[in-house]
Amino acid sequence: VQLQAFGGGLVQAGSSLRLSCKRPGIITSTFWSKSWAWYRQGSGGQRELVARSDSGGDTTYADSVKGRFTIVRDNAKKMVYLQMNNLKPEDTAVYFCHDGDVWGQGTLVTVSS
């Protein structure tokens, strides 16, 4: 089982992107019970937490993205999104979603200056 993450692309600084993540076949109660998170990994760097939404709805953000990124979980659709606004070149990375057990394959976000 693998999460499916998509929505990456090449954009200019100041633009917005929305990443999406789903886990095919997950049942609703399992989706609700999980904490969902987005991580990213830049070239040569370590994977870092970008945003997390726990089962109670509380959210956590990396300092570098606070005020620009928003993690949204749609319990009805069993989807998790990362809305990224005012993108900066330093946001360039492969973005991964994670549900505490399984990782997605990653989607590349490239921000040009």
In short:
With 113 residues, this protein is mainly β. The protein has one helix and ten strands; from the N terminus they run βββαβββββββ. It has one helix at residues 28-33; strands spanning 4-6, 9-12, 17-22, 36-41, 48-53, 59-61, 69-74, 79-84, 93-98, 107-112.
Jot down its keywords.
113 residues, mainly beta, six-stranded mixed beta sheet, four-stranded antiparallel beta sheet, 1 helix, 5% helix
Summed up, the helix count is: 1
Q: Largest sheet, order of strands side by side?
A: 2-10-9-4-5-6
- Please tell me what the overall shape is: globular
Please tell me how large the radius of gyration is: 13 Å
Secondary-structure content class: mainly beta
Residue share in helices? under 10%
Low-confidence regions: none
Largest sheet: 6 strands, mixed
Terminus-to-terminus distance:
37 Å
